[in-house]
């Protein structure tokens, strides 16, 4: 039952892992407008969707009642830590590095995913 409701969140998190730890081009931050670049918007959207899928999956499953009743806080915390771990893991990948602005985009996306869930299901 847990896997049934969380399959999309798990698949999405594996895609994030694949994209996040793939060797790529490392470009230094050159000006303030890079903070609002497509890369940061992609981080925001990817983690907003991850958080939304995890909250939805955790709250619908019946196998682990702790996850069901604490879905929002657990999904938010797991998504935030997952983004942080991936960013730290990028330091081990050639041509990749830790970017504080990526961590911020991930974090804002996590809270946006929670907010969207709240707007849809709680109001």
From TrEMBL:
Protein name from the UniProt record: VanZ family protein
A Pfam family that the UniProt record links to this protein: VanZ
VanZ-like domain boundaries: 33-120
Keyword Membrane in record: yes
Keywords (A to Z) from UniProt: Membrane, Transmembrane, Transmembrane helix
InterPro entries recorded: VanZ-like
NCBIfam families associated with the record: vanZ_1
Bilayer-spanning residue ranges: 42-59, 71-91, 103-121
Superkingdom to which the source organism belongs: Bacteria
